[in-house]
Amino acid sequence: MLDEIIAERRKKLDAIKAAGIDPYPARVKRSFAIAHALGEFDAIAASGEKVSLTGRLRSLRDMGKIIFADLEDESGKIQAVLKEDVLSDLPFWRSVLDMGDFVSVTGLLFTTKRGEKSIEVHELQLASKSLLPLPDKWEGLQDDDIRFRKRYLDLIAGDNLRELFKKKTIFWETFRNALKRDGFLEVETPVLENVPGGAEAEPFRTHHNALDEDFYLRISLELPLKRLLVGGFDKVFEIGRIFRNEGIDRDHLQDYTQLEFYWAYADYHDVMKLTEKVYKEVIEKTCGGLVTEFGGKKIDWSKQWPSVDYVEAFVKANDLDPLTASHAELLTKAKELKLEADKSAGKGRLIDLIYKKTVRPLLIEPCFLINPPVEIEPLAKRNPANPGVVERFQIVACGTELGKGFSELNDPDDQRARFDEQMKLRAAGDAEAQHLDEDFLEALQYGMPPAGGFGISERLFAVLMDKPVRETVFFPLMRAKQ
User: Fold this and answer.
1) C-alpha to C-alpha distance for 266 and 366, rounded to whole angstroms
2) Pick from 192, 274, 190, 197: which is nearest to 453 by CA?
3) What Å distances lie between residue 355 and 63, 112, 330, 358, 477, CA to CA?
4) Is residue 414 over pLDDT 70?
5) Which of 217, 329, 458, 472 is most open to solvent, judged by the fewest CB atoms within 10 Å of its CB?
6) Selecting from 2.60.120.1440, 2.40.50.100, 2.60.40.10, 2.40.50.140, what CATH number does the domain 2-134 have?
7) Nearest in space to 305 (alpha carbons), one of 232, 373, 393
8) Quick count: other Cβ atoms within 10 Å of Cβ 38?
9) Reported pTM
10) CB 230 within 8 A of CB 448
Protein backbone atom coordinates (compact mmCIF):
# COMPACT_ATOMS: atom_id res chain seq x y z
CA MET A 1 0.00 0.00 0.00
CA LEU A 2 2.75 2.45 0.95
CA ASP A 3 4.69 1.56 -2.21
CA GLU A 4 1.62 2.38 -4.28
CA ILE A 5 1.21 5.76 -2.56
CA ILE A 6 4.87 6.62 -3.14
CA ALA A 7 4.66 5.54 -6.78
CA GLU A 8 1.56 7.70 -7.31
CA ARG A 9 3.21 10.73 -5.72
CA ARG A 10 6.30 10.28 -7.84
CA LYS A 11 4.10 10.29 -10.95
CA LYS A 12 2.73 13.62 -9.77
CA LEU A 13 6.27 14.86 -9.21
CA ASP A 14 7.15 13.92 -12.79
CA ALA A 15 4.05 15.74 -14.06
CA ILE A 16 5.04 18.87 -12.14
CA LYS A 17 8.52 18.80 -13.65
CA ALA A 18 7.08 18.13 -17.12
CA ALA A 19 4.98 21.28 -16.74
CA GLY A 20 8.17 23.26 -16.23
CA ILE A 21 7.51 23.85 -12.52
CA ASP A 22 10.28 23.55 -9.94
CA PRO A 23 8.85 21.30 -7.18
CA TYR A 24 11.49 22.50 -4.70
CA PRO A 25 12.08 26.23 -5.36
CA ALA A 26 14.53 28.24 -3.27
CA ARG A 27 11.94 30.94 -2.58
CA VAL A 28 8.18 31.43 -2.69
CA LYS A 29 5.89 34.40 -2.03
CA ARG A 30 5.06 35.07 1.62
CA SER A 31 3.59 38.24 3.09
CA PHE A 32 3.53 37.14 6.74
CA ALA A 33 2.64 34.23 9.03
CA ILE A 34 -0.89 32.85 9.13
CA ALA A 35 -1.33 34.03 12.74
CA HIS A 36 -0.74 37.62 11.61
CA ALA A 37 -3.31 37.23 8.84
CA LEU A 38 -5.87 35.94 11.35
CA GLY A 39 -5.00 38.59 13.94
CA GLU A 40 -5.38 41.47 11.47
CA PHE A 41 -8.01 39.70 9.39
CA ASP A 42 -10.73 42.39 9.25
CA ALA A 43 -8.34 45.21 8.36
CA ILE A 44 -6.55 43.17 5.66
CA ALA A 45 -9.82 41.90 4.18
CA ALA A 46 -11.29 45.41 4.11
CA SER A 47 -8.24 46.77 2.31
CA GLY A 48 -8.85 44.49 -0.68
CA GLU A 49 -5.12 43.83 -0.97
CA LYS A 50 -3.84 40.44 -2.03
CA VAL A 51 -1.63 38.61 0.43
CA SER A 52 0.57 35.54 0.16
CA LEU A 53 0.43 32.83 2.85
CA THR A 54 2.53 29.68 3.07
CA GLY A 55 2.28 26.37 4.86
CA ARG A 56 1.61 22.67 4.66
CA LEU A 57 -1.64 21.32 3.20
CA ARG A 58 -3.30 19.45 6.07
CA SER A 59 -6.52 18.58 4.23
CA LEU A 60 -7.96 18.67 0.70
CA ARG A 61 -11.76 18.55 0.19
CA ASP A 62 -12.57 18.43 -3.53
CA MET A 63 -16.14 19.59 -4.25
CA GLY A 64 -15.80 19.62 -8.04
CA LYS A 65 -15.43 23.21 -9.19
CA ILE A 66 -14.09 24.22 -5.81
CA ILE A 67 -11.51 22.75 -3.43
CA PHE A 68 -11.32 23.57 0.27
CA ALA A 69 -7.90 23.10 1.85
CA ASP A 70 -6.49 23.63 5.32
CA LEU A 71 -3.17 25.48 5.18
CA GLU A 72 -1.00 25.31 8.29
CA ASP A 73 2.27 26.93 9.33
CA GLU A 74 3.94 27.04 12.74
CA SER A 75 1.75 29.93 13.86
CA GLY A 76 -1.70 28.69 12.88
CA LYS A 77 -4.12 27.37 10.29
CA ILE A 78 -6.40 28.99 7.73
CA GLN A 79 -8.82 27.66 5.11
CA ALA A 80 -7.74 28.14 1.48
CA VAL A 81 -10.53 28.19 -1.11
CA LEU A 82 -9.56 27.22 -4.66
CA LYS A 83 -12.23 28.01 -7.30
CA GLU A 84 -12.06 27.08 -10.98
CA ASP A 85 -13.45 30.47 -12.08
CA VAL A 86 -10.71 32.27 -10.06
CA LEU A 87 -7.74 29.92 -10.28
CA SER A 88 -7.52 29.06 -13.96
CA ASP A 89 -4.98 26.25 -13.54
CA LEU A 90 -6.98 24.50 -10.79
CA PRO A 91 -7.46 21.32 -12.91
CA PHE A 92 -3.69 20.90 -13.04
CA TRP A 93 -3.19 21.50 -9.33
CA ARG A 94 -6.04 19.13 -8.52
CA SER A 95 -4.15 16.38 -10.35
CA VAL A 96 -0.79 16.86 -8.58
CA LEU A 97 -1.41 18.17 -5.05
CA ASP A 98 -1.42 15.95 -1.96
CA MET A 99 -1.87 16.41 1.73
CA GLY A 100 1.54 17.18 3.15
CA ASP A 101 2.68 19.42 0.27
CA PHE A 102 4.02 22.87 1.14
CA VAL A 103 2.48 25.65 -0.96
CA SER A 104 2.28 29.42 -1.23
CA VAL A 105 -1.16 30.83 -1.97
CA THR A 106 -1.83 34.41 -3.03
CA GLY A 107 -5.29 35.94 -2.90
CA LEU A 108 -7.91 37.83 -0.91
CA LEU A 109 -8.99 37.25 2.66
CA PHE A 110 -12.72 36.73 3.14
CA THR A 111 -15.21 35.12 5.50
CA THR A 112 -17.34 32.21 4.25
CA LYS A 113 -21.12 32.00 4.75
CA ARG A 114 -20.40 29.70 7.69
CA GLY A 115 -18.23 32.39 9.25
CA GLU A 116 -14.85 30.73 8.62
CA LYS A 117 -11.91 33.03 7.96
CA SER A 118 -10.42 32.00 4.61
CA ILE A 119 -8.25 33.06 1.70
CA GLU A 120 -9.60 32.97 -1.87
CA VAL A 121 -6.68 31.67 -3.92
CA HIS A 122 -5.81 33.57 -7.09
CA GLU A 123 -2.36 32.10 -7.50
CA LEU A 124 -0.73 28.91 -6.17
CA GLN A 125 2.97 28.12 -6.03
CA LEU A 126 4.38 24.77 -4.96
CA ALA A 127 7.00 25.17 -2.21
CA SER A 128 7.88 21.50 -1.60
CA LYS A 129 6.35 18.30 -2.94
CA SER A 130 5.70 15.61 -0.32
CA LEU A 131 6.54 12.06 -1.40
CA LEU A 132 5.48 10.21 1.75
CA PRO A 133 2.04 10.30 3.43
CA LEU A 134 1.65 12.06 6.77
CA PRO A 135 0.47 10.32 9.95
CA ASP A 136 -3.21 10.68 10.73
CA LYS A 137 -3.88 14.12 12.22
CA TRP A 138 -6.29 12.79 14.82
CA GLU A 139 -4.82 9.43 15.77
CA GLY A 140 -1.23 10.64 15.63
CA LEU A 141 1.64 8.20 16.07
CA GLN A 142 0.93 5.40 18.53
CA ASP A 143 4.25 3.54 18.33
CA ASP A 144 6.75 5.10 20.76
CA ASP A 145 9.71 3.72 18.81
CA ILE A 146 8.54 5.48 15.64
CA ARG A 147 7.65 8.65 17.55
CA PHE A 148 11.17 8.97 18.96
CA ARG A 149 13.01 7.92 15.80
CA LYS A 150 10.89 10.14 13.53
CA ARG A 151 10.17 13.00 15.88
CA TYR A 152 9.35 15.30 12.96
CA LEU A 153 6.29 13.15 12.23
CA ASP A 154 5.27 13.30 15.88
CA LEU A 155 5.53 17.10 15.70
CA ILE A 156 3.45 17.20 12.53
CA ALA A 157 0.76 15.01 14.06
CA GLY A 158 0.44 16.79 17.38
CA ASP A 159 -0.01 20.52 18.00
CA ASN A 160 0.37 19.91 21.75
CA LEU A 161 3.87 18.54 21.25
CA ARG A 162 4.98 21.71 19.49
CA GLU A 163 3.54 23.74 22.36
CA LEU A 164 5.49 21.58 24.82
CA PHE A 165 8.79 22.48 23.19
CA LYS A 166 7.89 26.16 23.01
CA LYS A 167 7.43 25.98 26.78
CA LYS A 168 10.86 24.40 27.08
CA THR A 169 12.37 27.43 25.34
CA ILE A 170 10.57 29.70 27.83
CA PHE A 171 11.91 27.50 30.65
CA TRP A 172 15.58 27.97 29.74
CA GLU A 173 15.17 31.61 28.68
CA THR A 174 13.70 32.46 32.07
CA PHE A 175 16.61 30.84 33.91
CA ARG A 176 19.07 32.67 31.65
CA ASN A 177 17.40 36.06 32.02
CA ALA A 178 16.99 35.73 35.79
CA LEU A 179 20.68 34.97 36.32
CA LYS A 180 21.82 37.74 33.98
CA ARG A 181 19.54 40.16 35.78
CA ASP A 182 21.27 39.14 39.01
CA GLY A 183 24.70 39.95 37.61
CA PHE A 184 25.85 36.52 36.41
CA LEU A 185 27.99 36.30 33.27
CA GLU A 186 27.09 33.57 30.77
CA VAL A 187 30.16 31.68 29.53
CA GLU A 188 31.10 28.63 27.47
CA THR A 189 33.54 25.91 28.53
CA PRO A 190 34.93 22.90 26.58
CA VAL A 191 32.94 19.76 25.90
CA LEU A 192 36.12 17.68 25.50
CA GLU A 193 38.18 17.17 28.65
CA ASN A 194 41.44 15.43 29.49
CA VAL A 195 40.03 14.45 32.89
CA PRO A 196 36.27 14.13 33.44
CA GLY A 197 35.13 15.63 36.71
CA GLY A 198 32.50 17.48 38.69
CA ALA A 199 30.13 14.54 39.14
CA GLU A 200 29.96 10.85 39.90
CA ALA A 201 29.19 9.38 36.50
CA GLU A 202 30.81 7.17 33.90
CA PRO A 203 32.01 9.28 30.94
CA PHE A 204 32.02 8.72 27.20
CA ARG A 205 35.48 8.44 25.67
CA THR A 206 36.44 9.76 22.23
CA HIS A 207 39.66 10.07 20.23
CA HIS A 208 41.21 13.26 18.90
CA ASN A 209 42.93 12.32 15.63
CA ALA A 210 45.13 15.42 15.25
CA LEU A 211 46.50 15.11 18.78
CA ASP A 212 46.38 11.29 18.72
CA GLU A 213 44.97 11.39 22.23
CA ASP A 214 41.84 10.18 23.99
CA PHE A 215 39.49 12.72 25.53
CA TYR A 216 36.27 12.49 27.52
CA LEU A 217 32.94 14.16 26.87
CA ARG A 218 32.21 16.28 29.91
CA ILE A 219 29.97 14.87 32.62
CA SER A 220 29.56 18.21 34.38
CA LEU A 221 30.23 21.94 33.90
CA GLU A 222 31.60 22.37 37.41
CA LEU A 223 35.40 22.31 37.40
CA PRO A 224 35.99 24.65 34.41
CA LEU A 225 33.54 27.17 35.90
CA LYS A 226 35.33 27.04 39.27
CA ARG A 227 38.60 27.75 37.47
CA LEU A 228 36.97 30.98 36.31
CA LEU A 229 36.41 31.95 39.96
CA VAL A 230 40.13 31.39 40.49
CA GLY A 231 40.70 33.65 37.49
CA GLY A 232 38.78 36.53 39.04
CA PHE A 233 35.16 36.26 37.91
CA ASP A 234 32.59 36.55 40.72
CA LYS A 235 29.40 35.23 39.10
CA VAL A 236 29.40 32.84 36.14
CA PHE A 237 26.96 30.36 34.63
CA GLU A 238 26.69 28.06 31.66
CA ILE A 239 23.79 26.27 30.00
CA GLY A 240 25.19 23.40 27.95
CA ARG A 241 25.08 19.75 27.02
CA ILE A 242 26.69 17.14 29.25
CA PHE A 243 27.15 13.43 28.59
CA ARG A 244 26.90 10.49 30.98
CA ASN A 245 27.38 6.87 29.96
CA GLU A 246 24.64 5.50 32.19
CA GLY A 247 21.34 3.63 32.01
CA ILE A 248 18.15 4.76 30.30
CA ASP A 249 15.00 5.23 32.33
CA ARG A 250 12.19 7.72 32.98
CA ASP A 251 14.50 10.20 34.73
CA HIS A 252 17.83 9.78 32.90
CA LEU A 253 19.29 10.58 29.50
CA GLN A 254 22.83 10.04 28.24
CA ASP A 255 23.14 13.55 26.79
CA TYR A 256 21.14 16.42 28.13
CA THR A 257 21.14 20.12 28.92
CA GLN A 258 22.36 21.32 32.29
CA LEU A 259 22.68 24.73 33.91
CA GLU A 260 25.37 25.42 36.49
CA PHE A 261 26.29 28.68 38.21
CA TYR A 262 29.04 29.64 40.65
CA TRP A 263 28.89 32.65 42.94
CA ALA A 264 31.94 33.99 44.78
CA TYR A 265 31.55 35.08 48.40
CA ALA A 266 28.25 33.23 48.78
CA ASP A 267 27.45 30.00 50.64
CA TYR A 268 24.74 27.39 50.28
CA HIS A 269 22.26 29.48 52.31
CA ASP A 270 22.61 32.32 49.78
CA VAL A 271 22.21 29.87 46.91
CA MET A 272 19.06 28.38 48.44
CA LYS A 273 17.45 31.82 48.66
CA LEU A 274 18.36 32.62 45.06
CA THR A 275 17.27 29.29 43.60
CA GLU A 276 13.88 29.30 45.34
CA LYS A 277 13.19 32.77 43.93
CA VAL A 278 14.37 31.85 40.42
CA TYR A 279 12.55 28.49 40.36
CA LYS A 280 9.27 30.15 41.22
CA GLU A 281 9.75 32.67 38.42
CA VAL A 282 10.63 29.92 35.94
CA ILE A 283 7.69 27.72 36.95
CA GLU A 284 5.18 30.55 36.78
CA LYS A 285 6.33 31.72 33.34
CA THR A 286 6.59 28.18 31.96
CA CYS A 287 3.38 26.75 33.42
CA GLY A 288 1.24 29.86 33.85
CA GLY A 289 1.04 29.41 37.62
CA LEU A 290 2.73 27.95 40.68
CA VAL A 291 0.54 24.86 41.06
CA THR A 292 1.42 21.95 38.78
CA GLU A 293 0.38 18.32 38.59
CA PHE A 294 2.61 15.28 38.82
CA GLY A 295 1.41 11.68 38.91
CA GLY A 296 -2.14 12.78 39.69
CA LYS A 297 -1.05 14.98 42.63
CA LYS A 298 -1.16 18.76 42.87
CA ILE A 299 2.26 20.28 43.62
CA ASP A 300 2.24 23.76 45.17
CA TRP A 301 5.51 25.59 44.51
CA SER A 302 4.30 28.93 45.92
CA LYS A 303 4.87 28.25 49.63
CA GLN A 304 8.21 28.81 51.33
CA TRP A 305 10.20 25.60 50.88
CA PRO A 306 11.13 23.87 54.14
CA SER A 307 14.56 22.40 54.89
CA VAL A 308 14.79 18.67 55.62
CA ASP A 309 17.91 17.32 57.33
CA TYR A 310 19.39 14.46 55.30
CA VAL A 311 20.72 12.49 58.27
CA GLU A 312 17.54 12.84 60.32
CA ALA A 313 15.38 11.74 57.39
CA PHE A 314 17.70 8.78 56.72
CA VAL A 315 17.60 7.63 60.37
CA LYS A 316 13.81 7.95 60.50
CA ALA A 317 13.34 5.88 57.32
CA ASN A 318 15.96 3.20 58.05
CA ASP A 319 16.61 3.17 61.79
CA LEU A 320 20.27 3.50 60.83
CA ASP A 321 22.60 6.49 61.27
CA PRO A 322 24.60 7.03 58.05
CA LEU A 323 27.31 8.91 59.96
CA THR A 324 28.14 6.09 62.35
CA ALA A 325 27.01 3.00 60.41
CA SER A 326 29.81 0.74 59.19
CA HIS A 327 30.31 -0.27 55.58
CA ALA A 328 29.10 -3.78 56.47
CA GLU A 329 25.91 -2.46 58.08
CA LEU A 330 25.13 -0.30 55.09
CA LEU A 331 25.80 -3.18 52.69
CA THR A 332 23.47 -5.42 54.70
CA LYS A 333 20.76 -2.76 54.60
CA ALA A 334 21.17 -2.33 50.85
CA LYS A 335 20.78 -6.08 50.32
CA GLU A 336 17.65 -6.10 52.51
CA LEU A 337 16.22 -3.47 50.17
CA LYS A 338 17.22 -5.60 47.15
CA LEU A 339 19.50 -2.85 45.81
CA GLU A 340 22.30 -3.56 43.35
CA ALA A 341 25.39 -3.14 45.51
CA ASP A 342 28.51 -5.14 46.29
CA LYS A 343 31.66 -4.77 48.38
CA SER A 344 33.25 -2.48 45.77
CA ALA A 345 30.62 0.18 46.50
CA GLY A 346 31.99 2.76 48.91
CA LYS A 347 30.17 3.99 51.97
CA GLY A 348 28.94 7.08 50.15
CA ARG A 349 27.52 5.04 47.27
CA LEU A 350 25.66 2.75 49.69
CA ILE A 351 24.21 5.66 51.65
CA ASP A 352 23.04 7.26 48.41
CA LEU A 353 21.43 4.05 47.14
CA ILE A 354 19.55 3.52 50.38
CA TYR A 355 18.45 7.16 50.50
CA LYS A 356 17.08 7.00 46.95
CA LYS A 357 15.05 3.91 47.86
CA THR A 358 13.72 4.90 51.29
CA VAL A 359 13.78 8.70 51.68
CA ARG A 360 13.54 10.44 48.34
CA PRO A 361 10.25 8.84 47.17
CA LEU A 362 8.52 10.32 50.24
CA LEU A 363 9.49 13.93 49.45
CA ILE A 364 6.62 15.09 47.24
CA GLU A 365 6.19 18.77 48.07
CA PRO A 366 9.18 21.05 47.25
CA CYS A 367 11.86 21.13 49.94
CA PHE A 368 15.58 21.60 50.52
CA LEU A 369 17.30 18.39 51.59
CA ILE A 370 20.38 19.62 53.46
CA ASN A 371 23.65 18.50 55.07
CA PRO A 372 24.33 14.97 53.75
CA PRO A 373 27.35 12.86 54.86
CA VAL A 374 30.69 14.00 53.48
CA GLU A 375 31.24 10.63 51.74
CA ILE A 376 28.60 11.34 49.10
CA GLU A 377 29.76 14.83 48.06
CA PRO A 378 33.50 15.15 47.30
CA LEU A 379 33.27 18.77 46.10
CA ALA A 380 31.38 20.48 48.95
CA LYS A 381 32.66 22.21 52.10
CA ARG A 382 32.34 20.44 55.42
CA ASN A 383 29.89 21.92 57.89
CA PRO A 384 32.07 23.60 60.56
CA ALA A 385 29.62 22.61 63.31
CA ASN A 386 29.61 18.97 62.16
CA PRO A 387 32.53 17.98 59.89
CA GLY A 388 30.88 14.63 59.14
CA VAL A 389 28.39 16.37 56.84
CA VAL A 390 28.78 18.89 54.04
CA GLU A 391 27.04 22.18 53.25
CA ARG A 392 25.02 20.82 50.37
CA PHE A 393 21.36 21.02 49.50
CA GLN A 394 19.19 19.29 46.96
CA ILE A 395 15.89 20.68 45.74
CA VAL A 396 13.61 17.66 45.97
CA ALA A 397 9.98 17.39 44.87
CA CYS A 398 7.76 14.75 43.29
CA GLY A 399 10.08 12.11 44.75
CA THR A 400 13.10 13.13 42.67
CA GLU A 401 16.10 15.47 42.75
CA LEU A 402 15.48 18.71 40.84
CA GLY A 403 18.70 20.62 41.47
CA LYS A 404 21.75 20.56 43.71
CA GLY A 405 23.93 23.23 45.26
CA PHE A 406 26.57 23.62 47.92
CA SER A 407 29.23 25.72 49.56
CA GLU A 408 32.14 24.95 47.28
CA LEU A 409 35.22 23.24 48.65
CA ASN A 410 38.20 25.55 48.12
CA ASP A 411 40.76 23.92 50.45
CA PRO A 412 43.24 22.23 48.05
CA ASP A 413 44.49 19.76 50.68
CA ASP A 414 40.99 18.64 51.70
CA GLN A 415 40.05 18.39 48.02
CA ARG A 416 43.09 16.21 47.26
CA ALA A 417 42.26 13.91 50.16
CA ARG A 418 38.72 13.44 48.90
CA PHE A 419 39.90 12.87 45.33
CA ASP A 420 42.27 10.23 46.72
CA GLU A 421 39.33 8.48 48.38
CA GLN A 422 37.44 8.56 45.08
CA MET A 423 40.42 7.05 43.25
CA LYS A 424 40.52 4.19 45.77
CA LEU A 425 36.88 3.51 44.94
CA ARG A 426 37.71 3.52 41.22
CA ALA A 427 40.52 1.03 41.86
CA ALA A 428 38.02 -1.17 43.69
CA GLY A 429 35.71 -1.20 40.66
CA ASP A 430 33.44 1.87 41.02
CA ALA A 431 33.34 3.25 37.45
CA GLU A 432 31.36 6.32 38.55
CA ALA A 433 33.77 7.51 41.25
CA GLN A 434 35.47 10.80 40.44
CA HIS A 435 38.87 11.13 38.76
CA LEU A 436 41.72 12.98 40.41
CA ASP A 437 42.26 16.23 38.50
CA GLU A 438 45.77 17.59 39.13
CA ASP A 439 45.18 20.72 37.07
CA PHE A 440 42.12 21.63 39.15
CA LEU A 441 44.03 21.00 42.39
CA GLU A 442 46.80 23.29 41.15
CA ALA A 443 44.22 25.97 40.35
CA LEU A 444 42.88 25.74 43.90
CA GLN A 445 46.39 26.28 45.25
CA TYR A 446 46.42 29.71 43.61
CA GLY A 447 43.35 30.49 45.71
CA MET A 448 39.62 30.26 44.98
CA PRO A 449 37.32 32.57 46.96
CA PRO A 450 34.59 31.03 49.11
CA ALA A 451 31.68 30.37 46.80
CA GLY A 452 28.30 28.80 46.37
CA GLY A 453 27.47 26.67 43.35
CA PHE A 454 24.39 25.11 41.85
CA GLY A 455 23.41 22.73 39.06
CA ILE A 456 20.09 21.81 37.47
CA SER A 457 19.24 19.57 34.51
CA GLU A 458 16.23 19.51 32.22
CA ARG A 459 14.63 16.88 34.47
CA LEU A 460 12.85 19.76 36.22
CA PHE A 461 11.07 20.63 32.98
CA ALA A 462 9.97 17.02 32.53
CA VAL A 463 8.55 16.98 36.06
CA LEU A 464 6.71 20.26 35.49
CA MET A 465 5.18 18.78 32.34
CA ASP A 466 4.43 15.49 34.17
CA LYS A 467 6.17 13.50 31.46
CA PRO A 468 9.12 11.10 31.23
CA VAL A 469 12.23 13.08 30.37
CA ARG A 470 12.55 11.25 27.02
CA GLU A 471 9.23 12.81 26.00
CA THR A 472 10.63 16.31 26.52
CA VAL A 473 13.66 16.15 24.22
CA PHE A 474 13.38 16.42 20.46
CA PHE A 475 15.56 13.47 19.54
CA PRO A 476 16.30 11.06 22.42
CA LEU A 477 19.14 8.64 21.76
CA MET A 478 17.89 5.35 20.30
CA ARG A 479 19.49 1.99 19.68
CA ALA A 480 20.52 1.61 16.03
CA LYS A 481 17.75 -0.01 14.00
CA GLN A 482 18.79 -3.38 12.64
Assistant:
1) 23
2) 274
3) 66, 64, 11, 5, 29
4) yes
5) 329
6) 2.40.50.140
7) 393
8) 16
9) 0.90
10) yes
